[in-house]
Amino acid sequence: MAASPPSGGALARRLGLLDAVAIGLGSMVGAGVFAVFAPAAAAAGSALLIGLLLAAVVAYANATSTAQLAARYPSSGGAYLYGRERLGEWPGFLAGWAFVVGKTASCAAMALTAAAYLVPPEWVKPVAAGCVAVLTVVNVLGVTRTARATMAIVVVVLAVLALAVVGGLASGTADPASLAPALPESGVLGVLQSAGLLFFAFAGYARIATLGEEVRDPARTIPRAIPLALALALLVYAAIAVTALAVLGPERLAASARPLAELAGSGGWSWTAPIVQGGAALAALGALLALLAGITRTGLAMARTGDLPGWFAAIDPRFSVPRRAQLVLGAIVLVLVLVTDLRGAIGFSSFAVLLYYLVANLSAWTLPRAERRSPRVLQAVGAIGCVVLAATLPWPSVVIGCAVLAVGVVARLVRVTAARRA
Question: Which spans are transmembrane here (predicted)?
């Protein structure tokens, strides 16, 4: 039997296949596609395409695990719920905590990226904070508004990305030799680091699973929506990576602060710069909008089981959303926007989310044959890939990630011990 939501109110099932794909695609084709290719090229050079392929393989393996688990357990919570049901309370908690803290950092990164494309450096933080406040209100007004807004943003962003690719190809400066993969000075480690960074741009499909309690016919819709959103994102990323490498070259791509704007204008199309910058900001805001919705649904599931205060489990009777959790999350992201660093936030988020998917893969491994929708070997590939990519990220991201996870473990251990004594 699929897990049913505990007391505190149930969320309304309002999202169809197109809504779910839009939220997943909007979460992936967001700030990552505008921000992550430059550091990935700096790590891997022309071997960036190998890193993209590795990230896509791990993402696909993770997606198959997430899809079949979401069909089996169509409630909010994602890998937090799956870990608790299949592996036990502690693995579930680790997945939920990793998701919440990692994606909260992603929210700050998205807001900062959007503001960086919109305003001068001195205005980035206050404008980013304003973006968080506005989108928090949008999410409080209901998930159908979130899905519709995300769908509109996805259409605009895809058009902007197409403009960047066409502008680059129209320059006539594409050099196919730049696509020949060559190991960087750091060797295989550099390629793996690029894959870990690029995974940041793929991780959005989890948002579909975390909204499982709000999807109509989840056993059928979610397994279709996740791979569809992932395939569309991969096609977009591959087109951009190939064009950027061929036109800009790995060195110029790695050094660029706004690589897609530079790509679009490489053929003399200077008029495209403000369009691409606006598209980048819109993409980041679309991803932020979907993230704010997904994180609160995992927080809702954790509050229902006591891993977060039960106060967060309340559902707004009018808009059918976890309003308290949404408002608290918005406040936390506002604080992070004022103190965080963009590149550090991306690395930390990748580390935490890879651990989240590790739990998802291990959970899917335990499913009986009758409930499996993909070969078990994919779960092994996903689990091993998550561990390797997480371990090879820049060491500050690994250290900070382990420290933050340890804080959550200690806090839960204290709570559990106190409850047992009582």
Answer: 20-42, 48-71, 123-142, 149-170, 190-208, 228-249, 269-295, 327-358, 378-411
Taking the C-alpha atoms of residue 122 and residue 166, their distance in angstroms, rounded to an integer, is 33
Determine if the pTM surpasses 0.85: no
Q: What average pLDDT score do residues 135-150 get?
A: 70
Calpha distance 135→129 (Å, rounded): 10
- How does pLDDT run across 266-295, given as a tens digit for each residue? 877 888 888 988 888 888 887 787 778 778
Distance, in Å, from the CA atom of 108 to the CA atom of 346, rounded to the nearest integer, reads: 9
Q: In angstroms, how far apart are the furthest CA atoms of the chain? A: 73
DSSP structure class, residue 208 = H
In the chain the domains, ranked by start, together with CATH numbers, are: 17-415 (1.20.1740.10)
Task: Residue 71: name the closest of 219, 221, 225 by CA.
Answer: 219
Coil/strand/helix, residue 382: helix
**Which stretches of 156-286 are assigned E, i.e. beta strand?**
none
> Radius of gyration (Cα) for the chain, nearest Å?
20
Task: Say how many C-beta atoms besides its own lie within 10 A of residue 274's C-beta.
Answer: 11
Contacts of 122 (CB under 8 A, 6+ apart): none
Position 9 pLDDT exceeds 60: no
Q: For a pLDDT cut of 90, what percent of the chain falls above it?
A: 27
Identify which of 302, 184, 164 has the alpha carbon closest to the alpha carbon of residue 254: 184
Whole-Å CA distances, 326 to 124, 143, 360, 379: 23, 12, 24, 32
Cα separation, 337 vs 253, whole angstroms: 27
Alpha helical stretches, state H, 6-123? 17-28, 31-35, 37-44, 48-72, 79-86, 89-118
